[in-house]
């Protein structure tokens, strides 16, 4: 099971430029695999037509977590 929590980064701040990617924060259930993470990224890239960086909530570095959550735009 996966849940897209929201977007963060330049698109969330309205500061995207040509070549910017979309940063997507996701929450995966127990037992989720790397293949699911990569598959979701591929799916979203096909959907939006631009590069997508999928980040698992569990993989967020503690020093970045507060900044990411502060600018997060829920979807």
From TrEMBL:
Its cofactor is Mg(2+). It catalyses: O-(5'-adenylyl)-L-tyrosyl-[protein] + ATP = O-[5'-(adenylyl-(5'->3')-adenylyl)]-L-tyrosyl-[protein] + diphosphate; L-tyrosyl-[protein] + ATP = O-(5'-adenylyl)-L-tyrosyl-[protein] + diphosphate. InterPro entries: NT_sf, Polymerase_NTP_transf_dom, Type-VII_TA_antitoxin. One of its GO terms (molecular function) is metal ion binding. Residues 5-72 form the Polymerase nucleotidyl transferase domain. Its EC number is 2.7.7.108. This is protein adenylyltransferase. It comes from Methanosarcina mazei Tuc01.
